[in-house]
Each structure stands twice: as structure tokens, then as C-alpha cells.
Amino acid sequence: MNYRKANLGFLGMVLLHFAVVIVLLVGRITSMSILMNLFLSEMLLVVPALTALLASREKPGRVLCFHGLKFTSVLMVVVFTFLMGPLTTFLNAVSMLFVDNAVTDMSGQVLEYPFPVMLFMMAVFGPVCEELAFRGILYRGYLKSGNALKAVLLSSLLFGLIHMNFNQAPYAFALGVAMALLMEATGSLLAPILMHIVFNAQSVVLMYVYDRFFPWLLEEQAQQIMGPEELLPTICVYLVLALVCTALAGCVLVWLCRNEGRQEYIRWLWQEGKGGGKKGKVAGAPLIVGIVLCLAYMILLALL
């Protein structure tokens, strides 16, 4: 697996997304159940990524890195996830100065289904598929370039862009960085999968709790258009929280690295990355085309 295969995998995700949109437009299909939407969205990510992995002819187990985690590490991954919460909330609030909240817009459709069904689809099925595609395959492909920093940032950028909207893209990028670092700190894809599951699960649980006990809050969120006056105080509070909690999350990463005995590997990876040169190349025509198509779609969606 190398960066060329990773770039083709990402372009495949984008082209499949566009193909589905075109089919829906031609077929005049204006609505789709949220379950079908969630399933199809994840397949559009997994199929191109797995195709790229198979094309590389490497053993999937070697690329995906499903190593076990110590119980103490599992607990600290959960702590790390909650510490990243203020940063994602801050970025979400900033994006809402310009675009609508994508998750709130679909909450009505989500709540039409039983809680266990949506918990599985959004907090288990989705995270597993996305982590296999981005931290398991694309990130590992870019890491082969020898530059860990580029691999982390690029795979996270693509993870943000593939959400195809300006509301989720910023905090998805931040989460992508956190999950890639988490994978390197622990040496296991299970760590970012667990983080992703916990992060999504808390959103699903809160959605159903609000619907069960505080339904008026959901109605107010759906009807209220928040302007800068309402958002700025929230942004200021969460900026402070984000600075403190993200710093603590960094300390947790260091602890995880030591707990899993990864210090020497991280030092070696850092030295390899500082080498730069041709070995650090990750860009290519398929990557640029994929990014441009994503941005064009997101801009069009924002203008409509």
C-alpha cells in the first residue's frame, strides 16, 4: 500500500458519491430512508478503500494493524475522546456562523427509528467502516511515504472533506488528526475505532434522551436560527475549554504511548519524517481531482 493507491482510493470514494447523486437526480429520487442513506454512505467509503488495498497486494492484516490494547489503554482512550469534545464543539459552533448544523437537520429522521438500530448504524457500523477506510487504509498508504506529519494531516483533511459539507468538515478534520495520532500512540486500529464509537454514541444517546425527556429542546433547535449574537458567547466559552482539554488530551497521548511501549517507534517515525525529500511525496493528480470535486460540491451545497 502506497500513496498512489491511497489517492486512487480517495478519488474512487468521491466519484462513487457523484455517481450516486447523478443516479438519484436522473431517477428523480428526492428522498431516501436514513438507514439506506447511512448504509450507502459507508459503502461508498469502504469499497474504494478495500479495492485500493487489494490492488496493493499487501496482506490486509499487516496494513490494518488490529493489535490488542491493554485495559488501562482502553480506559484512557475513552478519557481522550471526551477531552477532545470541547474542541469539536468549538469548531462546530464556528462553522455555524456560516452554515447550518448538519446533524441537527437530520435528527428528525434519526428519531423515527428505534434507538438500538440507530445506535448500531451511527455508533458502530459507521465508525468501523470509516476507520477501516481512513486510518486503516488511506493513512497507512500515506505513512509509507515516510513522512508521518503529512500522512496525519492529509488523511485527516480527506476525512473532513468526504463529509461533503462545511459544517462537519472542520471538526471531522480535528477528529481525524486525533484518531491518527491515537493510532500511532497505541499501534492499533482498535484505538481510533473505539474513540470514533464513543464519540458518535454520545451524540446518538443525547439525541434520544432529549427526545424522551426534553422534546421541546429539539423543537427549539430545529426551529431556531442562531445568529452571531447567540453563537459568540458559546464560541468564547468553548475556546477556553478547548485549549485546556486539548492540552490534557496531548498528555493522555503521551501516557498511552508509554503504556503501550511505543516511545522508540515514535522517535524513529519522527526522525524518518524529518528526512523529507522524494520519500515524503504524497500528492498526485487523482488526489488533486478528488479534493477539487469535494470542494466544488460543498460550495454548491452551501449556495443552494
Explain the overall architecture:
- The structure is a single chain.
- This protein is mostly helical.
- Helix content is 80%, strand content 0%.
- The mean pLDDT is 89.
Give a brief rundown of this model.
This protein has 304 residues and is mostly helical.
- The average pLDDT score comes to 89
Find the structural class using helix and strand composition.
Answer: mainly alpha
Low-confidence segments: none
- The Cα radius of gyration reads 19 Å
Give the helices and strands as they follow along the chain.
Answer: HHHHHHHHHHHHHHH
Strand percentage: under 5%
The description of the largest β-sheet is: none
What fraction, in percent, of the residue positions are helical?
Answer: over 70%
